């Protein structure tokens, strides 16, 4: 096996096994710091050992075993004063864990631990992206539009609070679930978005491992709360978005916009399932939440056989509904994109420009301005806006697309 093959095996193992290894260690040792550091050490050992020893037949099992040993070594080093107690604890944990059912999923337990209401909402989301999604600190900082150092401090404090408050590692009881689920859904949505528009350097532009895991965990939560409209809405939104994944990046690695995608390449089964969930929520005649409205918007997009058949008036009406629930500048930006199709780019540009103070560091703001300016024939300011979007973007496929659009302006 070549060094390149080994590097690819380590990268793939990190994508596929990180959350499983961290979850297993958290369950065993009850400490997120130990779990994360031991997992990181295990992957570092793999980088050293696999080129010489070969990639093991079961990388996940090798990593979990190695991480367990690293964690035990750390505990023994750090707590000499309680050797007898710790030795007893470690021996008792050497027994194989009891089997868990489909719902008692270890990664789902880890998510609910990270999303405990004792933590602030943004902290819950950041911690889960790190512990479950395996995202790097720069990737998480970009997701929240904050500095990397500040995000690192936030995550460190969250892990300490979980340890000090002895927050349990479990899926909450049935009566506690509804109050806890909103934070979990927000996290899963962020994990999915990072997979669908990956921002890490050297990563694939679309990370199917993250989108698939977010969908899998959302399905588990839907089994826990089958009547929750927002759980159904998020699942529908993910499915309708995932259905377009293979059509979203061209053969030469460039982003393909929704308007330019080959709709025949969309996954018909995922679209049918997503549409069915949207129809079920409409039939319930209950006021929809944020994810249900976003799912409905995606249902309108995926119902059109050609981009020219898109019902933009319905999409703008749905965004009007969403703005009443979520008045964030990003929602306003997405509404303006739809308004451009209905009322023209000049009207949309005026709405976008009003968001500059709040979205000056957000690449999609500048990409949207660039496109609207291009459509209005204002080439020089469009070039400048494309340049700013390229500077701020982290996704390789998106950078390639924006660069081509800028260069077309001459």
Describe the structure.
- Helices cover 70% and strands 0% of the residues.
- It is an all-alpha fold and 410 residues long.
- It has four domains: 1-94; 105-169 and 177-225, no CATH class; 231-310, no CATH class; 324-410, Serine Threonine Protein Phosphatase 5, Tetratricopeptide repeat (Alpha Horseshoe).
- The longest helix has 27 residues, at 3-29.
- Mean pLDDT is 88; it is low at 90-103.
Key attributes of the depicted protein:
410 residues, mainly alpha, 4 domains, 20 helices, 0% strand
Question: How are the secondary structure elements laid out?
Answer:
Blueprint (H helix, E strand, L loop, with lengths): L2 H27 L2 H22 L5 H20 L4 H10 L13 H9 L6 H11 L5 H8 L3 H17 L12 H20 L11 H17 L4 H14 L25 H17 L5 H14 L8 H14 L3 H15 L1 H9 L2 H4 L3 H13 L3 H14 L3 H13 L2
Helix pairs in contact: 1-2, 1-3, 1-5, 2-3, 6-7, 6-8, 6-9, 7-8, 9-10, 9-11, 10-11, 11-12, 11-13, 12-13, 13-14, 14-15, 15-16, 16-18, 18-19, 19-20
Rg, nearest Å: 23 Å
Helix content: over 70%
Number of strands: 0
Query: Distance between termini?
Result: 46 Å
Global morphology: globular
Describe, in short, the structure shown:
With 410 residues, the protein is mainly alpha-helical. It folds into four domains: 1-94; 105-169 and 177-225, no CATH class; 231-310, no CATH class; 324-410, Tetratricopeptide repeat domain (Serine Threonine Protein Phosphatase 5, Tetratricopeptide repeat). The chain contains 20 helices and no strands.
